[in-house]
Specification:
123 residues, alpha+beta, 2,3-Dihydroxybiphenyl 1,2-Dioxygenase, domain 1
Amino acid sequence: MAKITGLGGVFYVAADPEATRAWYREKLGLDGEYGPQMLWSEETGDTPYSLISHFKDDGYIKPGKGGFMINLRVDDLDGFVALLKSRDVEILDSVDEGYGKFAWLLDPDGVKIELWQQVEAPE
């Protein structure tokens, strides 16, 4: 049966696409032929997935602009946050929810980015 197998990408308008792409490359280490790219083959988790989540209001997405947020999986949130800080990226907040660790930042266009390290459930 035909089915959707994953998230193909996030597309949005940026004031200066080349500058935004450079920021993703220089600050987050993401690059590709058509823009920031992540390969599923590089995912280290046992059950990786993509999520489309809906909110009644944009309180969770603030101070991001545009009514949406990009969630990026990371394998070591603390290490990646330290790397971002060394690259002068402001971290808005971070939290450990038990099932996962999260941190938030804004890209140069004001789009909120949520970093997520999935924590495996204890056996």
